[in-house]
Amino acid sequence: MTSDYLVEQVPTSDVLVLRMSVLRDGTPSQDPRYAEDDTEGSVHLGIQNGGVLIACSTWLPRPWPLDESAPATQLRGMAVAKHLQSKGLGRILLKAGIRRAHSLESTYVWARARDNALYFYERNGFATVGDQFIDEATGLGHHLVMIEV
Ligand SMILES: CC(C)(COP(=O)(O)OP(=O)(O)OC[C@H]1O[C@@H](n2cnc3c(N)ncnc32)[C@H](O)[C@@H]1OP(=O)(O)O)[C@@H](O)C(=O)NCCC(=O)NCCS
To answer: Which residues contact 119 (CB under 8 A, 6 or more apart)?
Structure first.
């Protein structure tokens, strides 16, 4: 099933809807926007089905905090529509974003990962780095995760 899905660049407005329903559900923040959403170098990659966005992710140039000398890409806002999670869509999107970062000569892809998604990142080759911290917007425990690309 998942081999039929295409990863495409998608507009901020579509991403905000999906972020709101997946990433802001049950959290104190009801604002799905990021300051970097429309800044130079930021792209939103997503998967659509029947004209509806079902998976989204945002990729921006930003140094990995533990090696600021190297070019790197930060992943933010990784989300799959609730009814379609655990079917491989997240992995497809993650791999596509990593390939893109590699083509842009990033040394690292990194993210501030929710603790309940750490297994997803580790399963896809990321290392968990450092201690837990609490994300201000969601109040949820997070860790830094990183992969060399
Ligand atoms: C995390 C998320 C993006 C993963 O996408 P997905 O399409 O559900 O994941 P996939 O089906 O590609 O899963 C790949 C692997 O990660 C595992 N996995 C995915 N989500 C998981 C979770 N929340 N907890 C534990 N394992 C998870 C899958 O079981 C699979 O492992 P396997 O290969 O051993 O079977 C998606 O579940 C999601 O949107 N979750 C809610 C929002 C969120 O936490 N986003 C991440 C913010 S940092």
So the answer is: none
